[in-house]
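Input chain follows. Return structure tokens only.
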Amino acid sequence: MENQPQELAGSCKATACEEECVGLSNGRPVCLEDRFKDECLNSLKITGGMKYCFVKKFLKWHAARDSCISMGAHLLIIETEAEQNFIQRQAFGEKWWIGGTDVNSEGTYYWEHSNSALNYTNWMKNEPNGGSRENCIEVLYLGDWNDKSCYTLTYYICEK
């Protein structure tokens, strides 16, 4: 992004940011909500009070997570069939990182952002199957979930 903040958040004085001021760019405050809006300009979807950003940049899972955090968001957590159906319609035809992993508890997937169990799943048949080599969840072309190496370059979905 061309207008990355040039100063630390501590240099933000009183600002009009609705959320946290993360720095200054060209002498003006850069707000978390602005970074989310800028990154998601053409891919922002809103439903049920949640905002979803479909980021078409290839990143590894941890970098995608960090990118979402830098926007004041997190990798997508899918909690219901209705949310899964919404995401499936929006994400059709591509692969996307979401926020599930078993990197700290092999075989037991959880949502990394909240450290909570997956109460809803949509695993593809015979998944997860990757053992210790595949620790991150991607949503596949038709909406099924797959465990994948976290080092694979994939698009990602942030949620706020």
